[in-house]
Each structure stands twice: as C-alpha cells, then as structure tokens.
Amino acid sequence: MRASGHSSGWPRWHFSDSSSSWRCSMSPTRFVSPDAPPESSPARDGAIMRHPTPGDGPHRSRTVPAEPAPPASPVADARLQSTGLLPPPLGTPIAVAYRSIIAHRNRAFDRRERVTQLSVPVISVGNLSVGGTGKTPMVMELVRWLRDSGHTPVVSMRGYRPAGLGSEQSSDEYAEYRLQFPDLPVVVSADRASALRDYLSKPNVAPGTVVVLDDGFQHRFVARDLDMVLIDALRDPLRDRCLPAGWLREPVQSLGRAGAIVLTRTDLVDPSCAARLESSLRNFARPETVFAHARHAWSSLDVHIGEAATGESTAWLARRPVVVACAIGNPHAFIAQVRAAGATIIRTIIRRDHHAWKPRDMDQLASLVRAEPVDGVVTTCKDWVKLSGVPRRPASIPFIVPRVRIEFTRGLPQLREAVLKAAVGHGPAEARRA
Q1: Residues 38, 26: contact at Cβ < 8 Å?
Q2: N or C: which end of the chain has fewer CB within 10 A?
Q3: CA–CA separation, 175 vs 130, rounded Å?
Q4: How confident is the model at residue 21 (pLDDT cuts 50, 70, 90)?
C-alpha cells in the first residue's frame, strides 16, 4: 500500500501491511522508509530500508546539517488511499454485511438492551477507525482535569496484551498509565461492565467519583454521560469505508452519538483543511456537540542510557542522526514528529501495534546502531515501557523517549466544560446514553 505526498518535500509513505486494535491478521514486522521515492515498491517484510542522509557516501558524522521540517499537508494517512484489509472484490460485500451487523447492534443499544448503569458518571474516549488517534494521551489529560477539579477518576480499559505476553503481564497502555500516574485506579477487563461494578462496590478501595473508558465508543455495554470521539486530521473518515474494505469500525453517521469531537494532529495539516474537515463532520453531529482541535506536543525528552535517565529539551534532537523504532497504531505521524523536531532519521523500524519487543529485536537495534554511528533510538513511551524490560538491552545505546501531552489549539474551554459537567452527571442514571 502506498500514499504519495501532497507536495515535493513531504514524505512519501510506503508500507506493506497495517496495524489495528482489531487484531487483524498481519505479518510480524514492517520496516518503513518515509522518504522512499514514489516509484519504489513497498517495503518487503523483513527488509531494512535506509533513509537518505545529506552528502554522498556512508554517514560518518554524528552531527549532520539540519533538515527542513516537512510542510503541513492535507494528505490523509496512507491507509485511506488504499483498500482496507481485503481488496474490493472481497472487501466490499463483506463491508456491506459488516455495516448491517453494526447497524443492528447499535439499534439494540439505542433500545438500551444489555446496557449497564453504573453508580457514578462515565466519560468515554474513543474513535471511529482502527489504529492510533491519541486516546491514551487524551485519557491522561482528562485524568489531570478531573483530579484538578477534585474528582477521583477510575480508568477502564480492555487491556490488549501484545502477542507473546503471559496472562500475568499487563498491556502497554496499562503500563503507560502506571508510569504516569502510579496511584491511578485502572480496571482492566474484557467485561468492563462487570469489572467496574465489582470495583465500585468494594468497601476496601478508595471510591471513584467518575469512570473514564479508554477506547469506549464501540463498547456500549456501559452507559455514559459523555462520548468523546477522536479523529486524526490526517485520516478523513469521509474518505474511508467500513472494515474490511476500509478502516472504519463503524460508519461516520455514528458521530451522532458523540457529545464531543476532537480533531487530533491538526498541526500536521493545513489549517484550512482542518476547518473543512470539522465543517463536514458537523453534518453528522448533534447541534450541541463540542468540537476541539489538538496536537500531540512534545514537552521534553527522557534519554535512557542503561539504568540512568536524564531529561532534555526537545531541541536536544536537532541535527542528530537517529534510528526510529515504534509499534503503534499510526507510526507515520510519530515519524513526522521526529523529523519536525529536527532529527535526521537514518533508519526506521516499525512493528505492528502492541508488538511485544523481544531480545532478537534488541539485538537488531544494537546491530543497526553499531553499523550507523547514530546518537540513539527514538521510541514512544508506549514502546519504552516494553523495551526497558527486554533482556540484552545494551547499556551504551541511548533510548530517547518524548514526553507527549495533548495541546489544544481550538475549543479547549468548551471541551473542558463539557467534561467537568459530565463528571458530576447530567441527571438521573436512566438519562445516560448507551
């Protein structure tokens, strides 16, 4: 699958499979070159593609000339330029059946069949499509808002574990929450309704005053006071289709359930494109739905060398040659952020979402760093919580982990007001939406 850039200088992304929280069948590894020329073929599984560096010959200097940041582009994620999991002859009829099933399911929930009412208000954070839109950093931001306002939030999540992890090991998102908020109650269960009922009824735990559902838009078994939907501005859902012909979990008409819609990564598109996307989405939302725009801002860097860690400003990355390694739902946006920080990407290694990093992965990273005199490996916090525990991690390799926070560029006061209003409940429990 391939997407070409909007203008010269904007990376052209090629990749050979997709990652999604729906656990689709995928090959185990992707190696991606964001700068591959348009005529090149998609990266083959298992191949390592080298990024071009300034000048001729092998890269030897540990400091290279600064690269200009790629211009803002309205181009959607590469997946939207392709068919979905299956090509049209197979994907289209299955997608029609899938939409019918989703419509039947939603009608049942609209009638409040099998919907659990909890004793406390519920706020859901979710999305329409598979892949990453920034739900985890958004949930963390809501936790900060709620705590600052005197609430005791409890996070509920499905808790997908990477393949290869045992039942006693936690998911990567759970580990992120533990890292950022050691005292935050996080209830992990596939049966969220039962698990939350059990937790809230325990006499020996601190009572939660509000529940935040991580990835809860499609999980309608728990009634909620606010549905917040995140939409990646790089991936216009109006240009997409339902699984498996496209990447939508449910059609865009489902935005009628949302009380708040947040366009994320709006800094990576032209402002006019973000405005047009919002205008189009308003046709499917309720009149009172709150809209906001946000970006994933890097506040600082954590540089880990062996067991030691130091804090650095984001300027530390400027003009440094690095390897990028990640296993997230939308790796290309992360790559764009690394480039925007001024780093020179020598090689990029991408695994599928929720990949469990293993010793052989660490050996490969070490081999790459030895082959190319780079200043470290840039990875996400979601990946670092797994990489940090992998055996044979060389003490000499710096792992650079950006600290990410949601930064709002539009609609923050209205969104915060909607969240805090939902946190005290809109009224009787029976008035909540499924």
Answers
A1: no
A2: N
A3: 21
A4: very low
CA distance 275 to 33: 30
Q: Facing residues of 232 across strands?
A: 264
Q: What is the pTM of this model?
A: 0.79
Give yes or no for residue 75 having a pLDDT over 50.
no
Question: Rounded distance, CA 120 to CA 429, Å?
Answer: 8
Q: Are residues 396 and 427 in the same domain?
A: no
CB 383 within 8 A of CB 277: no
Q: Report the residue count for the chain.
A: 434
Angstrom distance (rounded) from CA 156 to CA 48? 38
Write out the two tokens for 163: 């393949």
Tokens representing 205? Answer: 């735990």
Is a pLDDT exceeding 70 seen at residue 394? yes
Interatomic CA distance for residues 25 and 431, integer angstroms: 40
* Element of type H or E holding 371: helix 359-371
In terms of domains, do 304 and 289 share one? no
Q: What mean pLDDT is predicted for residues 384-392?
A: 91
| Residue 33: pLDDT band with limits 50, 70, 90 | very low
Total number of domains in the chain? 2
- CATH code: domain of residue 88: 3.40.50.300
- Looking at the fold, whether 397 and 338 belong to one and the same domain comes out as yes
Mean pLDDT of the chain: 82
φ/ψ of residue 336, rounded to 5: -60, -35
Q: Say whether both 243 and 277 belong to one domain.
A: yes
User: Scanning the structure block, which residue is given the tokens 């925007």?
Assistant: 340
pLDDT of residue 169: 47
> What does the block give as tokens for 306?
């062996």
User: Which residue do the tokens 């760093």 mark?
Assistant: 369
pLDDT at 83: 63
Residues 287 and 305 reside in one and the same domain:
no
Q: Do residue 309 and residue 289 come from a single domain?
A: no
> Do 261 and 356 fall within a single domain?
no
pLDDT reading at 202 higher than 80 = yes
pLDDT of residue 87: 86
Kindly give, in sequence order, each residue whose CB lies less than 8 Å from that of residue 337, ignoring residues fewer than 6 positions away.
Answer: 296, 298, 402
CA distance 21 to 397: 30
Q: Give the residue numbers spanning the domain of 98.
A: 83-296+408-431
Q: What is the pLDDT of residues 273-325, one digit of tens each?
A: 999 999 999 999 999 999 999 999 999 999 999 999 999 999 999 999 999 99
DSSP 110-124: HTTTTPBPPSS-EEE
Identify the helix (H) or strand (E) that includes residue 138.
helix 135-148
